[in-house]
Design goal:
By secondary structure, this protein is α/β, with parallel strands linked by helices. The protein is built from 20 helices and 14 strands. The strands form four sheets. It has a five-stranded mixed β-sheet with strand order 2-1-3-13-6. Strands 9-10-8-11 form a four-stranded mixed β-sheet. The chain has a three-stranded mixed β-sheet with strand order 7-12-14. Helix 2 links the parallel strand 1 and strand 2. The longest helix is centred in the N-terminal third of the chain and has 16 residues. The relative contact order is 0.18. The structure holds beta-D-glucopyranose (BGC).
């Protein structure tokens, strides 16, 4: 008895001698600046503040995150990396190889991430076997959005093949309606391109945009992909160049265009504007089988042992994968929770379609990483492909020329 109380007393003294608890701090770099995105990231800011965290916001506008990644490189090069960064796909491993990422395995293990995250998606969050990123959601990229009123008025159903899409687009054009709302930015061209590739078959997508198989890249099928891209180019309005993706979504919302091909962050915009799926707008997978996933995640950068920042990183990681954030954030963002144990009761019909298709595609082996959103490839080959896609879309280049260029560009980037 006596020994126990002596031990207890000395433990108490040790506790008292410990330094004051760290105050969680985080400077967070992200590119969530549109209406729906800002609403979503605010959920994380609020949860962080409720748990005593102090958040310094570093938003870098620009859909798809190209500008944010440029800003990140500048910060890391100047030896002043942000605490937490929206980062995804192989870019996580690329930064890990630079030796600048923090290991968040302690949080991941304590919170049991391995039990609640699908293995294929969890693999993107690992660096040499340890956890180096916290996943936020699952966005599906291969979605087509439609203005329900326009489609109904013109007797058009959501197309299930590209031929049907082309027929619908021509009908709309005859009626004086812009068929496709598009923003001419390289990543948006790439977003459409990958859905067209997927439409040629999930195997073809896998060979061409995941494995970078030169035969698939140089195939007749790829010629057909560029043919369809040229056709699609004819369905956008004259002012498409440089337009932000959310302004393209607004065109569908406001009846200025019938369709948009975009990941389900577009749904976040519709919802933020009070639009109702099935009533005001429609959602359907782009033609073809398969599910192109885009998992947003945050990586923590090495902060040299700064206790407040480390506490901030740990708290952020815990909150991001926590069930309450996963539900509220994704309700706003348009995506679905990446955790498999979050109820979808509060989610809309598009989210249900997404979750059901994801399960079926995982089973069928057609759950595939998006190349356009940095999930499938490292930066160099991905950039090389996008350069060709956007050069073709914005010129009179023939499909044969584009295919030739594609094969060369990929070969040079490997
Ligand atoms: C991100 C989304 C974001 C979208 C538009 C995608 O690459 O994964 O979270 O909403 O870009 O900025």
């Amino acid at each position: 008895m006596k020994t126990t109380s002596v031990l207890a007393a000395s433990a108490a003294v040790t506790c008292l001698a410990l330094p004051a608890l760290a105050e969680p701090q985080a400077e967070v770099l992200h590119w969530w600046t549109s209406g729906g995105e800002a609403k979503s990231v605010a959920v994380l800011q609020e949860e962080f503040a409720e748990r005593g965290g102090s958040w310094t916001d570093m938003p870098v506008a620009g859909g798809g995150g190209d500008a944010a990644m440029t800003a990140l490189r500048a910060r890391v090069l100047s030896g002043n990396a942000p605490t937490a960064v929206q980062l995804k796909g192989p870019a996580i491993q690329e930064w890990y190889e630079e030796g600048v990422l923090a290991d968040i395995s302690d949080v991941a293990e304590e919170q049991g991430w391995a039990d609640v995250l699908p293995e294929q998606l969890a693999a993107h969050m690992k660096c040499d076997g340890s956890w180096c990123a916290a996943p936020v959601n699952v966005h599906r990229v291969n979605w087509m959005w439609g203005n329900a009123e326009i489609l109904e008025a013109n007797g058009i159903e959501m197309p299930t093949t590209w031929e049907e899409f082309n027929a619908a687009a021509e009908k709309l054009q005859e009626a004086g309606i812009t068929p496709l709302a598009h923003g001419g930015q390289a990543w948006q061209d790439a977003t459409i391109f990958e859905t067209v590739v997927l439409g040629m078959g999930a195997d073809f997508y896998q060979q061409a945009l995941v494995e970078l198989d030169p035969e698939a890249l140089g195939s007749d099928t790829m010629v057909q992909v560029f043919d369809q891209m040229r056709t699609i180019r004819g369905y956008v309005d004259d002012n498409f160049s440089g337009r932000d993706w959310n302004l393209a979504t607004a065109m569908v919302m406001n009846g200025e265009a019938a369709f948009q091909i975009m990941g389900d962050w577009a749904k976040g915009e519709f919802l933020a504007a009070g639009k109702v799926p099935g009533e005001d707008f429609t959602c359907a997978a782009t033609p073809g089988d398969g599910f192109l996933y885009n998992v947003d995640s945050f990586a923590m950068f090495d902060v040299g042992g700064d206790e407040d920042k480390v506490a901030g990183q740990n708290l952020l990681a815990e909150l991001i994968v926590g069930p309450s954030f996963q539900e509220t954030f994704n309700l706003n963002k348009g995506s679905i929770p990446v955790r498999s144990d979050v109820s979808l009761d509060a989610f809309d019909m598009c989210a249900h379609v997404s979750a059901e298709d994801m399960a079926a595609d995982a089973e069928a082996g057609t759950l595939l990483p998006s190349y356009a959103h940095g999930m499938a490839l490292r930066g160099e080959p991905a950039g090389a492909i996008t350069d060709v896609v956007t050069a073709h879309f914005n010129s009179e280049m023939s499909s044969d020329e584009a295919v030739e260029m594609l094969v060369d560009a990929v070969a040079n980037a490997m």
